[in-house]
């Protein structure tokens, strides 16, 4: 009830008062930041940090227990022959695969994330979404990636979206909640900013760009706007919220661009897996290839990394 009253008073005023996003300015700034490079002396550190930020993800209808176990082993030891290579932040799977992943990750320190709430559409009754969330947490997930009801948001029913996030956050218990905005369906940067603030006010621990099932997925301008939101939210409330771009981030060069944007927009406090993640499947392979190149001076053959 207290959160609902907060929405009806303070938050409704806050959302209405958010400044509009200058689309041209935002895209120009993101493009400018993307041209900045990381010094060679810091590249090895940046690659290892990026590996530690990866939520290694498989969200396909053809997922099998064997594939999930293999991916968990890769998350724990991305480079089996090199014990200095860090583990990834998490594995992200469908709820049905959580028990398999929980057993495979036990004692590793790698987090177990599960999409829930009728991912990727979000088109299900709230009770179904709550049951989905509770089942994933009870099976071992310590992070839940939920999707907002984009239809309700685009219809202007912000209270419905807010109340759903509050309820799902409660259903998470001790698990962290990442709220997927599906920015490719929100239409405008103004909506991205508004949805970011709405999710944070409702209790999100992370805000996430995309499901990876809708184009466009993560983009630098959208991520920059979300980073501005978490920065400003911490200044206003004292609470820090993480950001997770997901979908379409495939190369080390891509990851480096995002790290630069994180540092320049939100600040170095967000350069940590606790506050910034990459939702990715193929990114890890390229990071490992580039890591090996830095160590040996040459690229390995195409069979150096596993094909997930």
TrEMBL record:
Q: Which UniProt keywords apply?
A: Lyase, Schiff base
Q: Name one GO molecular function term.
A: deoxyribose-phosphate aldolase activity
The enzyme's E.C. designation:
4.1.2.4
Catalytic activity, per the record?
2-deoxy-D-ribose 5-phosphate = D-glyceraldehyde 3-phosphate + acetaldehyde
| One of the Pfam families matching this protein, by short name | DeoC
What GO CC annotations are associated with the protein? Answer: cytoplasm
GO BP: carbohydrate catabolic process; deoxyribonucleotide catabolic process
Which top EC class applies here? lyase
UniProt-listed SMART domains: DeoC
- Give the pathway: Carbohydrate degradation; 2-deoxy-D-ribose 1-phosphate degradation; D-glyceraldehyde 3-phosphate and acetaldehyde from 2-deoxy-alpha-D-ribose 1-phosphate: step 2/2
Which protein family is named in the record? Belongs to the DeoC/FbaB aldolase family. DeoC type 2 subfamily.
Database matches in NCBIfam families: deoC
Any idea what this protein is called?
Answer: Deoxyribose-phosphate aldolase
Native species of this protein? Actinorhabdospora filicis
Q: What is the lineage of its organism?
A: Bacteria, Bacillati, Actinomycetota, Actinomycetes, Micromonosporales
